[in-house]
Amino acid sequence: xxxxxxxxMLGVDWGTSNRRAYLVERGGRCLARHEDGQGMLAVGGxxxxxxxxxxxxxxxxxxxxxxxxxxIGSAGxxxxxxxxDIATPLAALASHLAPVAGHPGCLIVPGYCTRADGVDxxxxxxxxxxxxxxxxVGDGTVVLPGTHSKWVQLRGGRIARFATFMTGExxxxxxxxxxxxxxxxxxEDDDDAFAAGIAQARLGLPLSQSLFGARxxxxxxxxxxxxxxxxxxxxxxxxxxxxxxxxxxxxxxxLGSNALGAHYARAARHFCEAPAVxxxxxVYLAALTQLLQGSQHE
Amino acid sequence: xxxxxxxxMLGVDWGTSNRRAYLVERGGRCLARHEDGQGMLAVGGxxxxxxxxxxxxxxxxxxxxxxxxxxIGSAGxxxxxxxxDIATPLAALASHLAPVAGHPGCLIVPGYCTRADGVDxxxxxxxxxxxxxxxxVGDGTVVLPGTHSKWVQLRGGRIARFATFMTGExxxxxxxxxxxxxxxxxxEDDDDAFAAGIAQARLGLPLSQSLFGARxxxxxxxxxxxxxxxxxxxxxxxxxxxxxxxxxxxxxxxLGSNALGAHYARAARHFCEAPAVxxxxxVYLAALTQLLQGSQHE
Lengths: 298, 298
Description:
Two copies of one chain form a homodimer.
Chain A: E1 8-14, E2 19-25, E3 30-36, H1 40-43, H2 47-58, E4 66-69, E5 84-85, E6 98-99, E7 106-108, E8 112-114, E9 120-122, H3 125-134, E10 140-144, E11 149-155, E12 158-165, H4 167-176, H5 191-202, H6 207-219, H7 228-243, E13 252-255, H8 259-268, E14 276-278, H9 280-297
Parallel strand pairs in A: 1-4, 4-7, 5-8, 10-13, 13-14
Antiparallel strand pairs in A: 1-2, 2-3, 6-7, 8-9, 10-11, 11-12
């Protein structure tokens, strides 16, 4: 729990490779912001030292509570925080913050776990979802593109279900080595090839089959090698849309206004109405404000 | 076309990384056999020189015709040989051998291409399928496990359809780096985890989702990390079975009596009757004999 008297808070989205930190005041204004590569892997276990250095950089004294989200709460992070079940409303995150043992004022946001259709987990995205709710995103589907994209169905302030897709990781792996790498070199985005990848995804064949199909198209001279990168991108992203049943009438919000978010918005056109695209920074700030204000009502 | 007077033939299964060579006589007896790492990538473009060295090693003189199959007939091989459509019967391969320009007595077996459900191609497997037919494999499904596994439906001596799955390549990639690598270290085969992977495959979710689920099971403490390798193996192989609609009553032949073939035979138990398992060497020899004998009837 954030102390009720706190009028400022340091929020840190602390992931595996990077972290983003924001100093917010109760009204929601962002007083300072910092981003660096001191993710979980770079810190080498000294999270307290790393946080102290961050406070110094941002000129935030020790009295200001810090709320951290992301992989910092995983087994390899500062302290493992058990997952919440998705029955717990997002608004209740404020009362489920886990204090870091021995470090007063240091709190970690718990992630969520679900056990429908196998097991799925999130850490960090729950905070963004809280921010999305605060920004007026209602019932519908929220997509969080990334190395591990999340598709979340929101219903009445709760996560009804969610699914993770290793889209970004698979794309990077396939481009880095193996059969497809030779034809997945950096190139211009190709709308037609992206659409062809989406059309292939709609067939619902396993990715292990459709990915080989990208190479088969090239060696059978049905597709120029320069189009393979966009085809694979469309195939992997289209697979998410197909699996999630996104269709006409779907209320889709994409959380991320960067280049990757733009790819998802481009894919969405093939399935449903134009999605709302939210800025990830704005969403995270809204979440922090929510957590800080929520502390007043407890 | 193999000269009708030839009473011996050198057959080379010439792949990307390796090659296997057999000297066969018309009756089907194998007179010599050689295997080495002089695949397409190692040869550096000098296929004629590499073949001459192979002849020397195996003491096969220049008068003996050589029939080559596999990636040697691809764009990066000795000479690109156009794919046959699957309407062409396997028995007709003998009359579609492509002579290598400027190298009399050097022939390449063409691969097959299909354009159902996207595009798919094979090079090398067609020769093995010819051998399987010769060994009595009739209508039904032939599985050729490997880096790129093939599932082939045979009907009346023709390929009715086929599908390729990048199963072996994906497994190796995932084990080598990224999110799953840490939990996919070498370990004992675990039957229960393999079966759990197959059960997950049956749900028909995209692999990009189910693969993340392997990690989610571990971090949510639903599965011991030591089981992840077998789970992923069951998931990827089970995906092939599920996509291919293998069910009770299916006539399945697995082409490969090695450790990988055993994994597929183990998976088959979850779907259908015990498959026939054929030895890849025996199958290739049968194919060469078939090509050599076929030349007599032309």
